């Protein structure tokens, strides 16, 4: 087991629990609205943004956030305007973000900066700063407030956006807000599991929670618990077995999903 | 409700799905919209709700739908055609019915005890209260359709638009829904539009019938007048269609 200063471990645990919980909470939106491909786009846009930040000597986190939110702001209206399924639009934008990321990485001078950039690919939870944790806390508060304040509307949109629109709810506005929050959390979680794996955290824990109940109230309560547990357990596992943190977290969350499929009460008879 | 010269063309199409439709529906009237497949019945309902961009004037509940569509929709109940959800859909029937009241309850407020009582009353009236805590995706087609009807009724709508609401219902359920909507019209003065391709399923006591054919409103008036019109023969052909059995019994 790796020996690390307790303060560092505590910070990583808090950051992991927050990011895991938040990713999973927003993952419920992504799973229900079938926005998974859009999420991939945003996570890779965040990665490209971080690489661009390093290239321009700007804060990689701020640039990741900017690019991720910009993508979130473009994807929804683009899919609506083009009248194309979200998957198609995301399929077109996704390679662009990856291509840009690789160009920025190739242009980075010196091996040290290159290594820093590559760490964005697999994450480095131990480098989480107090600012990262503050940002995650604020975004968690914003997301919880959004869900609580607009609970009825969120439920109606997650059930069926078109029916919600027919009921006089601004469904498009809520979907865009959900995309925006998703873009923000993806960018903030980049340090945790890295650009390549962050979206697994979003999808796995929400999908696990959705296996447990048909009641959305319970799903929304369970999902962040699953996400936080996966992050904490994955982090401890990585310390114990000296494995990459991001990969460990994703493997644990995938394992939890596998168990949820096997033991889901939805699959019981009688 | 007033429509003047309304046409709706789907994106990428040259030919409008409905053309130059003008009609007026009085407050508290029950109107059946009939027509063969592809006549434009669903398009007409979605145009009335402002869900589709259209040309011409669409005035509903005294509001211009193009400018204040969301407000109209928040006061109108709508049951879409063949709405079904998958078995894994994580919503309970009770919560789906409550969604109908979302716009009525307003922003930043949770459903009150009174709202839940209305939801339960509507579900009881439709005979589905025992399904309240069941996942909607696990219900049969007919049960899901009743949940969607309950969702529209729970809104306490001033205007009710039902698109093929009887397609999955058995005969007794059809009768029950017909009785409920007639009651809404008679007791609350709700304006109701029912789309149906099955003429035998038409509400027995509808005030008027609108016949659509090829996107045009080819007849509009009292049921007997529409069924004996030339336009009806053109739309359905002579003797090829079963007319409502109650038609001859009407006073």
What does this structure look like?
Chain A has 270 residues and is mainly α. Chain A is built from 13 helices and no strands. Chain A has helices spanning 6-32, 36-55, 60-82, 86-107, 111-122, 130-149, 151-159, 161-166, 171-188, 190-193, 198-212, 216-241, 245-263. In chain A, helix 1 (6-32) crosses helix 11, helix 1 (6-32) packs antiparallel against helix 12 (216-241) and helix 6 (130-149) packs antiparallel against helix 9 (171-188). Chain A is globular. Chain B has 251 residues and is of the alpha/beta class. Chain B is 35% helix and 21% strand. Chain B contains nine helices and ten strands. In chain B, the strands form two sheets. Chain B has a six-stranded mixed beta sheet with strand order 6-7-8-3-9-10, with helices on both faces. Chain B has a four-stranded antiparallel beta sheet with strand order 2-1-4-5, covered by helices on one side. In chain B, a hairpin with a 2-residue loop joins strand 9 and strand 10. The chains are: A mainly alpha (270), B alpha/beta (251). Chains A and B meet through helix 7 and helix 8 of A and helix 2, helix 3 and helix 4 of B.
State the gist of this model.
The complex is a heterodimer of chains A (270) and B (251). Chain A is mainly α and 270 residues long. Chain A has 13 helices and no strands.
Largest β sheet strand count, sense and barrel closure of chain A:
none
- Strand-residue fraction of chain A? under 5%
> How many strand segments of chain A?
0
- Measured between the Cα atoms of the first and last residue of chain B, the distance is 27 Å
Shape of chain B: globular
Order of strands in the sheet with the most strands of chain B?
A: 6-7-8-3-9-10
Radius of gyration of chain A: 18 Å
**Weakly predicted, low-confidence segments of chain B:** none
Radius of gyration of chain B: 18 Å
The helix content of chain B, as a percent range, equals 25-40%
Mean pLDDT of chain A: 88
N-to-C SSE series of chain B? EEEHEEHEHHHHEHEEEHH
Biggest interface goes to: A-B, 26 and 36 residues
Major beta sheet summary of chain B = 6 strands, mixed
In total, the number of strands of chain B is 10
Number of helices of chain B: 9
Low-confidence stretches of chain A: none
Number of helices of chain A: 13
Shape of chain A: globular
Helix vs. strand class of chain A = mainly alpha
Distance between the termini of chain A: 46 Å
